[in-house]
Amino acid sequence: MANPFVHVELNTTDPGQAKTFYQSLFDWKMQDIPMAQGSYTMIDVGEGTGGGMMKHPMPGAPSAWLPYVLVDDIKAATQKAKSLGATVIKEVTEVMDMGWLSIITDPTGAVLGLWQPKA
User: Fold this and answer.
1) How many domains does the chain have?
2) Same domain, yes or no, for 59 and 85?
3) pTM
Protein backbone atom coordinates (compact mmCIF):
# COMPACT_ATOMS: atom_id res chain seq x y z
CA MET A 1 0.00 0.00 0.00
CA ALA A 2 1.45 3.34 -0.99
CA ASN A 3 1.48 6.13 1.60
CA PRO A 4 0.15 4.27 4.67
CA PHE A 5 -0.59 5.87 8.00
CA VAL A 6 2.59 5.32 10.03
CA HIS A 7 2.22 7.28 13.27
CA VAL A 8 -0.62 8.78 15.29
CA GLU A 9 0.24 11.57 17.71
CA LEU A 10 -1.75 13.04 20.57
CA ASN A 11 -1.12 16.74 21.16
CA THR A 12 -2.66 17.14 24.61
CA THR A 13 -3.23 19.84 27.18
CA ASP A 14 -2.35 17.36 29.97
CA PRO A 15 0.19 14.64 29.01
CA GLY A 16 0.21 13.08 32.48
CA GLN A 17 -3.55 12.63 32.58
CA ALA A 18 -3.64 11.38 28.97
CA LYS A 19 -0.85 8.89 29.65
CA THR A 20 -2.63 7.51 32.72
CA PHE A 21 -5.93 7.27 30.84
CA TYR A 22 -4.58 5.45 27.77
CA GLN A 23 -2.36 3.07 29.77
CA SER A 24 -5.42 2.13 31.83
CA LEU A 25 -7.78 1.87 28.87
CA PHE A 26 -5.49 -0.08 26.52
CA ASP A 27 -2.48 -2.38 26.85
CA TRP A 28 -0.16 0.26 25.40
CA LYS A 29 3.51 0.48 26.37
CA MET A 30 4.74 4.05 26.95
CA GLN A 31 8.34 5.26 26.78
CA ASP A 32 9.31 8.85 27.64
CA ILE A 33 11.98 10.44 25.47
CA PRO A 34 13.59 13.69 26.63
CA MET A 35 13.65 16.41 23.96
CA ALA A 36 14.90 20.00 23.85
CA GLN A 37 11.33 21.35 23.98
CA GLY A 38 10.15 18.97 26.72
CA SER A 39 9.24 15.31 26.92
CA TYR A 40 7.79 13.08 24.21
CA THR A 41 6.11 9.76 24.98
CA MET A 42 6.36 7.01 22.38
CA ILE A 43 3.35 4.67 22.28
CA ASP A 44 3.88 1.01 21.37
CA VAL A 45 0.48 -0.52 20.62
CA GLY A 46 1.82 -4.00 19.80
CA GLU A 47 0.18 -4.69 16.44
CA GLY A 48 -0.67 -1.89 14.06
CA THR A 49 0.40 1.72 13.84
CA GLY A 50 1.98 3.13 16.97
CA GLY A 51 2.30 6.73 17.94
CA GLY A 52 3.22 9.25 20.55
CA MET A 53 1.98 12.02 22.77
CA MET A 54 3.25 15.39 23.88
CA LYS A 55 2.17 18.67 25.46
CA HIS A 56 0.21 20.57 22.81
CA PRO A 57 2.65 23.00 21.14
CA MET A 58 -0.07 25.63 20.57
CA PRO A 59 -1.24 27.17 23.89
CA GLY A 60 -5.01 27.30 24.18
CA ALA A 61 -5.59 24.72 21.44
CA PRO A 62 -7.71 21.68 22.33
CA SER A 63 -6.25 18.19 22.64
CA ALA A 64 -6.36 16.33 19.33
CA TRP A 65 -5.01 13.23 17.61
CA LEU A 66 -2.88 13.83 14.48
CA PRO A 67 -2.24 11.01 11.97
CA TYR A 68 0.96 10.95 9.89
CA VAL A 69 1.26 9.50 6.39
CA LEU A 70 4.50 8.03 4.98
CA VAL A 71 5.96 9.87 1.97
CA ASP A 72 9.08 9.23 -0.12
CA ASP A 73 10.08 12.90 -0.45
CA ILE A 74 8.83 15.19 2.33
CA LYS A 75 9.68 18.44 0.53
CA ALA A 76 8.02 17.37 -2.73
CA ALA A 77 4.92 16.00 -0.94
CA THR A 78 4.54 19.16 1.15
CA GLN A 79 4.85 21.34 -1.95
CA LYS A 80 2.40 19.15 -3.88
CA ALA A 81 -0.14 19.41 -1.05
CA LYS A 82 0.26 23.19 -1.09
CA SER A 83 -0.23 23.29 -4.87
CA LEU A 84 -3.45 21.30 -4.43
CA GLY A 85 -4.89 23.83 -1.98
CA ALA A 86 -3.48 22.73 1.39
CA THR A 87 -2.21 25.20 3.96
CA VAL A 88 1.17 24.32 5.45
CA ILE A 89 0.92 24.65 9.23
CA LYS A 90 4.46 23.41 9.92
CA GLU A 91 7.12 23.48 7.25
CA VAL A 92 9.45 20.51 6.78
CA THR A 93 11.23 19.98 10.11
CA GLU A 94 13.92 17.48 11.05
CA VAL A 95 13.09 15.27 14.04
CA MET A 96 16.29 14.32 15.83
CA ASP A 97 17.97 11.43 13.97
CA MET A 98 14.64 9.87 12.99
CA GLY A 99 13.38 11.77 9.92
CA TRP A 100 11.39 14.80 8.80
CA LEU A 101 7.80 15.93 9.23
CA SER A 102 5.48 18.60 7.97
CA ILE A 103 1.89 19.35 8.96
CA ILE A 104 -0.80 20.49 6.55
CA THR A 105 -4.45 21.42 6.60
CA ASP A 106 -6.31 20.08 3.57
CA PRO A 107 -8.75 22.28 1.61
CA THR A 108 -11.64 21.00 3.79
CA GLY A 109 -9.92 21.94 7.07
CA ALA A 110 -8.64 18.49 8.14
CA VAL A 111 -5.14 18.40 9.63
CA LEU A 112 -2.63 15.76 8.50
CA GLY A 113 1.05 15.10 9.13
CA LEU A 114 3.50 13.95 6.47
CA TRP A 115 6.51 11.82 7.49
CA GLN A 116 9.75 10.79 5.77
CA PRO A 117 12.04 8.56 7.85
CA LYS A 118 15.81 8.76 7.55
CA ALA A 119 17.19 5.89 5.54
Assistant:
1) 2
2) no
3) 0.91
